[in-house]
Amino acid sequence: MFSRRNISLPIMKIAHRSDSSHNDIEKKIFAHGAEEAVTDGDQAAGLWFSHTPEFSGRRVGAIGACKLDPSDAASAFLSQCADHLYSAHGCQHVIGPMNGNTWLKHRLILESSGRAPFQMEPIEPEHYHDIFLKAGFEILSKYSSSTIDLAQKQRAFAKMENKLIEKGVKFRPINPENYEQDLEAIHALSLISFSNNFLYTPLPLEMFMQNYLKAKDHIDSDMVILAEWQGALAGFVFCMPDKAAKMHGLPKAVIVKSLAVDPGAPLAGLGSILVAKAHAIAKEKGYREAIHALQHENNSSLRISQRFDAEVFRRYALMVKSFS
User: Fold this and answer.
1) Mean pLDDT, all residues of the chain
2) Measuring CA to CA, how many Å separate 88 from each of 49, 62, 169, 229?
3) 20 to 30 A Cα–Cα from 63, which one of 26, 127, 164, 292?
4) Cα(173)–Cα(236) distance, integer angstroms
5) What φ, ψ does residue 259 adopt, rounded to 5°?
């Protein structure tokens, strides 16, 4: 049975969302959705302890929205934050950096080629890994981002695609005039397809719609491809231009942001076909690279990337500190 320890926190300042006033740092942390904002001199972090993912059947707390300098003081601060989540909120696993759940900003950098960040990439300072390790955290899960050179000849899946078409699969781009209806179908399939993902938490439709409605003016509808079968959505690939590439002097790139297929549909190879179609369309539009973004080390989409000779340029991790 869980028993809490009495831990003295004489230095850390803990602010709550319900407090009558907040300073600028606390306001910034609460803007990320944190339930508590913790500060200590130059160090700051947001804490989450409700509606967090479950891990190994135990309560999870999350530390995110961090501001940590490369010092022993930052490690001590982070360790105190974890102790507080355990002692005050009963969180037996503390995961970070993560802004509450994996739909939101999470991960720190393990290693990098030095390639400039792509649009919306969750980049944390490279010293965060050492800070988390010194605070008693260890690696919980790993991820990677990679590039595919679209100038090179791409693998053909014509035979596989023909089999799917013979089964009645129809491919089409997302409909800008029916965007919200298509998004609702994408959300419903995401709940099914991602349900077995590591640290999965279902995202409410309202929040999903808010996030993706904002993206409407930033996508090329030709590169959001839907696969329909027997009157329902059976798979999709959601791509968007990497607007940061030009700013950094990099080749024109498209980000393969999300890929999902219905695990219950007997449509082998559908994920590979969707990605191949997205690559082909991007190449026709003058894109020179495809970025396969933020893939979990055990995700099936990573195996698809390997079929296209993907080259990893960044590796990331989520960290955990556990209490018995």
Assistant:
1) 92
2) 10, 13, 52, 50
3) 292
4) 9
5) -135, 130
Domain shared by 123 and 201, yes or no: no
How many domains are there within the chain?
Answer: 2
Same domain, 159 and 292: yes
Q: Structure tokens of 322?
A: 């556990």
**What 3-state DSSP class applies to 105?**
coil
Q: Do residue 221 and residue 177 come from a single domain? A: yes
Q: At residue 220, what is the residue type?
A: D
Which CATH number do you get for residue 255? 3.40.630.30
In a domain, 252, yes or no: yes
Task: Check whether residue 167 and residue 139 sit in a common domain.
Answer: no
Mark out the alpha helices in 115-238 (DSSP H runs): 128-134, 158-166, 179-193, 205-214
Query: Which of 111, 143, 175 is the last residue before a domain boundary?
Result: 143
Full domain range(s) for residue 277: 153-308
Would you call the peptide bond into 97 cis, given omega within 30 degrees of 0 as the criterion? Answer: yes
* C-beta separation of 82 from 94 below 8 A: yes
Q: Which amino acid makes up residue 121?
A: E
Tokens representing 103 are: 């739909």
Q: Are residues 133 and 163 in the same domain?
A: no
Classify residue 324: in a domain, yes or no.
no
Q: Using one digit for the tens of pLDDT, what is the confidence trace for 235-273?
A: 999 999 999 999 999 999 999 999 999 999 999 999 999
Do residues 258 and 160 share a domain?
A: yes
pTM over 0.85, yes/no: yes
CB neighbour class for 83 (10 Å; exposed up to 12, middle 13-18, buried from 19): buried
Q: Do 188 and 228 touch, CB atoms closer than 8 A? A: no
Which residues lie below 8 Å from residue 244, measured CB to CB, with a gap of 6+?
116, 117, 118, 119, 250
Query: How many C-beta atoms surround the C-beta of residue 255 within 10 A?
Result: 25
